[in-house]
């Protein structure tokens, strides 16, 4: 037996095997793999995007990992269990970073899902009685968001310098109708609507409770400078913020196919916002 020829043949075979394995890995991966942490309707949208031709054309292999809870999802992003997440508003992100001493960053805007003011007892905002009981979400970002909406609706006035991420009822400067406030788990809004005069509900929770913010609320947010803290964002870690694949996700969200799907599924209640992140930081 010619040992040199045998060794040469084994080396050649190993080289070909490794090359084949490398080609197989590339095909199986179908492009850069990105794991997105999400929940509820956002997860539904990203599953649609993951299967879209646009994602294939962008050479992205998107995996959607559903996680229950905003803090848990942000923690998973911070710890690298997911590459990016899609569920939260700018105000929620600011609040999380402050409370958790974290440095997650937004890489794209996606939509405004309007918070609405709902009631089964009142038919018009002009009819809100003196001393009305108002239910607000019991988490810093959504408490502040609800108070800001009450101000835009003309029911209260907030102190100068109101913090849109952590503001509370203690920051009310003027309360002419002597509103009373009750803090609730923000997932229970549709269930407590009959027990209070007004309840502020985010649209994801409202839809899960059979409510459409554009049709059923007395008053709701609209896209403006005043509501920029409520605009939803794609979020990742600072070391991944320039990753080309992650940056492509914003484009995939705003393409025509995705927007048509969102309109059909959610009846216009996810208002598209395609602005640079710098708009939120101003």
From TrEMBL:
It is a lipid-anchor. Keywords: Lipoprotein, Membrane, Palmitate, Signal. It comes from the Bacteria. Gene3D superfamilies: Periplasmic binding protein-like II. Pfam families: Lipoprotein_9 (PF03180). The keyword Signal applies. It is found in: Membrane. The keyword Membrane applies. Residues 1-27 form the signal peptide. GO terms for cellular component: membrane. InterPro entries: Lipoprotein_NlpA. PANTHER family: D-METHIONINE-BINDING LIPOPROTEIN METQ, LIPOPROTEIN. Belongs to the NlpA lipoprotein family. This is Metal ABC transporter substrate-binding protein.
